[in-house]
Amino acid sequence: MKKNLLLVLCLSAACAHAQQTDNDKLGTQLKQMEETLRKQQAQIDELKRQLEASKTNVPPPAPPAAAQPIAMPEPSRPSVVAPQAAWSPTQPIRIGSAQNYINLSFDGLFAAGTSTARDIEGGTQLGGHDPKQRGFTVQNLEMTFDGKVDPYFRGQANIVLQLDPHGETTIEAEEAYLETMSLPLNLQLKAGQFFTEFGRLNPTHPHTWDFVDQPLVNGRFLGEDGLRNPGARLSWLMPTPFYSELYFTMQNSQGETAHSFRSDHGEEPFLGRPPPETRVRNAGDMLFAPRYVASFNLTDAQTLVAGASAAFGPNSSGNHVDTQIYGVDLFWKWKSPHQHAGFPFVTWQTEAMMRRFEAAAFPGDLTTPPLPQETLKDYGIYSQVAWGFRKGWVTALRGDYLLPDEKGQYEDIIGPDPDRASRWRISPNLTYYPSEFSKIRLQYNFDRRNGIGDDHSVWLQWEFLLGSHAAHKF
Description:
Elements: H1 2-56, E1 93-96, E2 101-115, E3 135-148, E4 153-163, E5 169-180, E6 187-195, H2 216-222, E7 228-237, E8 243-252, E9 286-297, E10 302-314, E11 322-340, E12 343-359, E13 374-390, E14 393-404, H3 409-414, E15 423-435, E16 438-449, E17 453-467
Antiparallel strand pairs: 1-2, 2-3, 2-17, 3-4, 4-5, 5-6, 6-7, 7-8, 8-9, 9-10, 10-11, 11-12, 12-13, 13-14, 14-15, 15-16, 16-17
């Protein structure tokens, strides 16, 4: 009996010892697992902190001064650099800081072709940037500088280079102006050298045109380089439920960029009269140009823009005589609700103008008989339609028409005046845009000029853009 009791006690002691050993092992394993979990949680917390830092890279705002706690030193942490977005070609080439910077770009516009006309430059082609000769033409080499001057002004300058038919390079400051950014009452002031706010096409640059050349009415009434001069312009964005803006411009009225006003026309007679001396004598010698434009969303897919313009100023035929030009313009655009990259679309643009030119009396000379004072009226219109039928492809058609109200005394005596003769033109074209930075355009012109006859012209145009060009108005 004693032996059995002793055996039971020994077995109980052995079981108790084994159970204690197992408990010790389990406790050790539990501690190891808890330590591993603490390390993993610390790594998770650190990764979360780095992720938040990479998203913002900006320290959290400090609490208000009244509730600011006493700053306690924090343990050093490894710095995290936010990933930078990849550069895109649509981004401007920018120099400077957020408070004062300049964007740079360069645009090259060229053409090649032929024409049956004997007088291409100044004959069939009235624009200064039009193809001017058979073979190749450098239409426009434009450097654009635009940017922010300070919190109050932004500035822009367009420096243009051209090669004339004789191979000579010309350089001109086409535009250089500043605009206010913070005037009250939705007012804005522009000052410097700039295109006059007259119609839709005149304030734009050749690379934005839908055709190789400018419309005939713009060349005849506003000049080969467009109506532009040094001056100032005040605009008011009116508080209407639709876009509505009123402009008033005052500029110099002399020079070749004031074609129907006090231009010397290269010392050649204009409308039968040689130009007198052209200098600013008083405020009456300035050019004044009001304009009103409004835009309406007809539907979610259609927009209509309508405008009316005028320009008043003295002209070069003599003293105390003026020129008045009036214009109306319409622009309509349809863009498919299912468009991709802006295609398909259809646009229609039309401008009509009337010029009232007070021609001074002329006493006559060895080549021209005496002429009385008279008022000459001329009319002109162009209308164009463009269809973007698939991505990158646009076809367009434009019609031009010029018509004098009636003959002047000069024409009755000398004969047809090329500065007033009636004429019309039809121009179809096809344009391919490989990207937003290049284009290739093929255009045909059929010209009919009263007293001269018919002419046919074919032009191939190409363009490239370096950098991001300053945005143009819709």
